[in-house]
Amino acid sequence: MSSALYALGRWAARAKWLVLIVWIVLLTVLGVGALTIGKGANAPITIPGTEAQEAITSLSHTFPEVSGTSASVIVVAPDGERVDTDEYRDAVVDSIAEFEALPGVTGVQTPFGTGDMAAANTDISPNGQALLIQVQVEGDTTSVSDETKVGIETATETLGDRLPDATVSFGGEMFSISVPGITITEAVGVLIAAVVLVLTLGSFVAAGMPLLIALIGVGVSIAGLFTVTAFVELTSTTPMLALMLGLAVGIDYTLFIVSRHQEQLRAGVPMRESIARATATSGSAVVFAGLTVIIALVGLSVAGIPFLTSLGVAAAAAVGLAVLIALTLTPAVLSMAGMRILSRKHRRLLAATGEANTAQTAGEVSALSATDALTTSDASGTKGIPAPVPTRADRFFGGWVRAVTKKPIITVFSVLVVLGLAALPALQLRLALPDATALEEDAPARVTYELTGEHFGDGYNAPLLLTGSIISSTDPLGLLDDLKREVEQIPGVASVPLATPNQGADTAIIQVIPEEGAHAESTTELVQTLRDHREEWEDRYGVTLSVTGFTAVAIDVSAMLMEAMLPFGIFVVGLSLVLLAMVFRSVWVPIKATLGYLLSVGAAFGAVVAVFQWGWLQDALNVHSTGPILSFMPIILMGVLFGLAMDYEVFLVARMREEYVHGGDAQRAIHRGFVGSAKVVTAAALIMIAVFAAFVPEGDASIKIIALGLAVGVFVDAFVVRMTLVPAVMALLGDRAWSMPRWMSRVLPSFDIEGEGLAREIEHENWPADMPGARIASSELALQRGGSNLRTPEIRLADHEVLVLDPRDPVSVPLAQVLSGRGSIDAGTLKVDGLLLPERAGSLRARAAWADPHTLRQGIGDAPSVLVLDLRDTALSPLGPDAIADARSAIAAWATALEGSTPPIVIVVGDLALASELLPDSLTLVSLGDDSATVYEEQSMEAAR
Fold first, then answer.
1. What is the number of alpha carbons within 13 Å of residue 441 lying toward its C-beta?
2. Shortest CA distance to 257 belongs to which of 18, 8, 593?
3. Measuring CA to CA, how many Å separate 904 from each of 26, 533, 848, 852, 862?
4. pLDDT tens digit string along 787-810?
5. In this protein, which residues make up the domain named SSD (predicted)?
6. Please, what are the domains in the chain?
7. Which regions in the chain score pLDDT beneath 50?
8. 247 near 369, Cβ under 8 Å?
9. pTM of the entire structure?
């Protein structure tokens, strides 16, 4: 990976204006699409397949008057007055006509109404001081037109004018959810991020770059999301979560690359070379970190909930764009900025020592060894370049890591105790969907909600519906009277104000008012009790009743999300173990990282419960009310925090491993790796915290819970787990931290984020010295086959030469596989077509073909630059003259076509004489010598014949 990113960084630095134009054009096109065809993110939260949701869907066809959403209007008389007087009756009856005339309204229920929607006296409070008007509207809460909403507000104001001494307020399900928007406080988070960037990078140009690039990335992702709404429904939370994550990771990912580039420039690495190497090293960590966030977000689909899946995919797309823009636009903008990316102090220092001028020459690239160039934090400095003078931050972090590793057992124990206590509140975690209590105190919907609870009881804010088919009943009204009496006897039921069939007398609804509100455990128990009576009522009355309504749907959503937390947690933990094992080639590092992640999650959950359930710091954080936590907060927080935790694990521990693999002992690698990465990890964490925390004070109720959890989770994970617990645990493990069983190392693919592969490639850029232009070159090459270690003689293959391998030699077939990118090397050095193996095996495999004479034309159809011609089968089935002529013609045409770019590389596994017949005269046959002292023996075509 580091090699591919190195090439990408070099290309982006050269094609800087093209890269910038492509991103600006993409932003413009998606922006136009969002404005012209986007439908907005306002899809309802539904869970198809649940009893409550299926019942609502069925009601939309059989009883549309009650299947949609609803609004409530409450009228409260002054103290000492009653609402059942003629004055109130006349005012309400006059308003009914206004409500019924609104578009989409299917019925109005009041204590003074008539017909199917007439209500019992239960719509008048027990003390007679308040009454309720229920307005039923078709559609869901997000599809109701603005005209209807404004009409209900206007009619309510008119009713208030008719009753000037009364309190009249509107609310209900339709108005209980607010659409989140961007406020000025989010800009405060960006300003804090800017300050942190200036302090970290020491240059306004460097500090502005991550912000600019992140904002472009966020603009592309948000515009793309709103464009996609023309084809896919998204909830209102989706773009806000994508904005929050895209902004945070976008700044961080660019920061890592810019910081590494600055470090290398100060060490004297040439400009474009530094851009490429920063993209290769820090860029590899960015890819891995982004990949973990993306996988975790897409993993939200394991819950099987459509709205959560779309939310996860949308947020993952925003993170993916942040990675892509960091890897392409960052190198381009770095190239535009030039040396201005450094502070004036460092530019003057480089100019004074002559480094700023000599760094522009190509000759210096080869003067720097790979290890020197890629590990600029070495205390001895790079070759010929003084080591950077330790800064105040370096001294601080050096002192910190020495303190936490001096007595690691005490450090580990202290962290576990503190985080264990912080996680205790999470044991009382309760989940629910938000209702009107999450709105601001003066919001009309919340005022209505609280007045309804005060005068009618909390259960009136959480009505349930029993519905079912009664088509087989000969006495629908009598049946419903019997069912109504049955339901009224169930514990937890406050009243049953409505039990009526539809106009066709084939579907019934029974409205049930619980004794307590939607978030009460007794209401959840009541829903289950009603469902438990289904079989009894079916046997007795011949009708199957389902429990539905907004409250029942919310309870079903919360239950499914709670059930999904365990499988999702297992998925995330298992994923972290595998991914980190791939990255660090270690067993203990993944285990330590995963346990640290669980500690961070526990502390984040504890903080959320303490604030939003217990009310700690409620006023300071502008929390409007306390109660159960947003149902999908835990699973989203687990997914997002997993990715961010892996970010800091990778950026911190990868630098330790980089020091270790480049020759440092385990303890020294901890100290140097920590000091080399702690400054940028601290800045990245502070930026994340600032961005997330900015969404808390004025954010939407759904977003602020997630934002607070992420802000606390990032703080704990970055500063307590990664920068305190991790060094202590690594000090305890020592060299064992980097050990892995050989069988596991062979099974797991390698994810080179430390640039080891790139270091080897740079080191072998002009290798072999005796033949720099060799098409194939090897040294001390050893292959594994059947448990045996096969060593090969050195190979040097020039242009227009063909390597012929004797199939009787056990090394021939494994060597041919390796030379085409299909085998594995046990030891030694090998380059094929300029590609160092095994680092570039994937690239070689893409440009190599393996064919026999019968599949030759198909094999060379894609114009490969490397061809393995397998002639082993011809020993048993010799080729006829026509087949030989056809194969010779095909190879000649292929070789001629490649001559314009690069001569072909041909490896033959088979008979030397037959190879001479098949290959053009312009190619010289070279066979692998039996004596290792004989590099190869050449034979002209005539001699072979």
1. 6
2. 8
3. 39, 79, 10, 17, 13
4. 567 788 889 998 888 999 988 888
5. 189-336
6. 2-39+180-384 (1.20.1640.10), 51-177+446-551 (3.30.70.1320), 404-426+563-742 (1.20.1640.10), 764-944 (3.40.50.300)
7. 115-120, 355-387, 930-945
8. no
9. 0.73
